[in-house]
Each structure stands twice: as C-alpha cells, then as structure tokens.
Design goal:
Structural class: alpha/beta
Largest sheet: 6 strands, mixed
Distance between the termini: 16 Å
Mean pLDDT: 78
Strand content: 25-35%
Radius of gyration: 17 Å
Helix content: 10-25%
Shape: globular
Number of domains: 1
Low-confidence stretches: 162-168
Number of helices: 2
Number of strands: 9
C-alpha cells in the first residue's frame, strides 16, 4: 500500500516499537505508580501495522520547541504534550492513523495530547504529499487516510467497553473514549 509505505519511510525507526505480530502491549507508567497495560489484538482484519511511541521525557523529540522559561515570560504550557502512541494500520488497502492516549484516571488533558499528535501526523502526511511524485509514490492519496483519536482509560471495574455504538459515537472533539481493563481489539474500530 502506497500510503502505509511512504508514511513508514518518513517516520524515524528510532521511535518504532512494533511492526509485525498478532498482538502488541501498550503501557503507560508514571513514576512509582502502577502501570496501565493493555494488550491490543491486531490479528483480525489488519494487513500491516506499525506502532510508534514518542516519549518526550526520554528522547529529544520536538527539539525545535522552546521548553524553557524566557526571562519574565513563563514556560508555555502543553507545548510539548503528545499522545502516547501513533499506530499506522493498513486494512483492505486503506490506511488509518490511530492516535492513542492512555489514561489511568482523569482524562481531561487527553484532548490536548491527541490534538498534538494529530497536528504532527497531518504535517507528516502533508510532507508525504509534497514529495510523493519525486520519490515514486505518485498514487499516494492523502485524502484516503483516516484519523482515529482514541483515549484508552483503565476502568475501576473489569467491565470492558471495546467499541462505541458506532464510529459516529464520538465526543465533540472527535475522540473515541474506550474503557478497557486489559484487552482491546483493533479491528473493532477500523
């Protein structure tokens, strides 16, 4: 698939955590707190998948943003915020970009983090569209790419909500909120 391949070539493999398998394990941990772990089943209905994790604390990601206080001006809040995972999924020759934010409690800032991930990926897709012809991807279609913004929240009970009633069951910011204690099936949201 032309969209999957070109986007994969643009994104740096330094942040790639997964490319091929039937499931992946997404984790989020903060300090000494208990980790939030979700196993994602990708086997059914997925042709190819690539998972990226951009940990701002560990790597020099987005180095062109000022992260310091400038004189009397305070440090800019949430400038370097970012979603936990970016997942490229090819299914039936269609590319979906899943932006995933994992939450263990309050999910108020999920919107900002998912929005930052979407802006980043829109830049990547625009860059791909700009260079497609010269690099032999003239059939790349940026309008065929679907974005999904997903907030995976650890519930207080073991009850799983793995799929909204339908894909139009999103909040006002087009975010799909899924309560998931341990397993999530990717094909249910594609």
């Amino acid at each position: 698939m032309k969209e999957f391949e070109l986007i994969r070539r643009i994104l740096d493999d330094e942040f790639l955590v997964f490319t091929e398998n039937d499931h992946i394990r997404l984790t989020e941990s903060k300090g000494n707190d208990e980790s939030h772990i979700i196993d994602v089943n990708i086997a059914n209905g997925v042709d190819r998948c690539a998972v990226y994790k951009y940990e701002l604390d560990e790597k020099d990601f987005l180095p062109f943003f000022n992260d310091k206080q400038a004189g009397a001006f305070p440090r800019l809040k949430r400038l370097r915020g970012f979603c936990d995972y970016i997942v490229l999924v090819e299914s039936n020759d269609n590319l979906s970009i899943l932006l995933i934010e994992m939450k263990r409690g309050n999910s108020d800032d999920a919107e900002d983090q998912l929005a930052a991930g979407r802006v980043f990926m829109e830049y990547i897709v625009s860059s791909a569209n700009r260079i497609k012809d010269i690099n032999g991807y003239s059939d790349f279609d940026c309008n065929a790419i679907q974005y999904r913004l997903i907030s995976l929240k650890r519930p207080k009970s073991n009850k799983t909500t793995t799929r909204p009633k339908d894909l139009s069951d999103l909040d006002k910011n087009q975010i799909m909120h899924i309560s998931c204690p341990g397993r999530f099936y990717l094909n249910r949201i594609l």
